Amino acid sequence: MRVIQDWVVYRGMAPTVEELRQAVGAGSTSTVLRYLRQLEEEGYIERWHGARGLKLLRGVEGTLKTRPVPLVGVVPAGPLMLAEENLETWVRLPEAGLTPSSAQFFLLRVKGNSMNRAEVTGGKIENGDLVLVRQQSSADPGQIVVVLIDGEATIKRLAAGPDYWVLKPESTSKLHHPIVLDKETLIQGVVCRVLKKGSAITEEVILR
Fold this sequence. Notes:
By secondary structure, the protein is of the alpha+beta class. Helix content is 19%, strand content 34%. It has helices at 2-11, 17-24, 29-41, 200-207; strands at 45-47, 54-56, 58-59, 62-63, 66-71, 89-94, 105-109, 119-120, 123-124, 130-135, 144-149, 152-160, 164-168, 179-182, 186-195. The protein is elongated.
């Protein structure tokens, strides 16, 4: 049950039977199917036809709780205004993946390939994905951050110089170069998860 819940939380979609078999190390799909039938009978999941025809009804410790997170767009101009009138939409995400619970989060849609070699929870940061950002005004070197530059948001790896920051791309393209900024740079938050393009969550958002 924990494997299914973590998969949904961190990847934004239900696992297939084969993915679940590999994740738990089962010897055959029949073992996984028997396990899924038991969870369905006990009211933990709902199933239907389709490779990812599975929905969590209850979490490991009871009812699966969710929390609304704002999607603020691709590259918002100016400070990231989280007032409702400036948002594209709200997306409900499982509370288990939003830690600490006291933090504020927002989603950004990735545009371009400047960070397509960087990996965080959920996979690589590729064009069309959504990134979950924990809102904070400071960050540690090595973290992937959202920073405002010339009124636009950019996602880069943070590195520290003696009295400046370096924003480093991690790309398969050689067109992207490091950016040097002073330490008064407006850090908006730290990227903590990727919701992959094509997942149940991102497809729902794209259709809105």
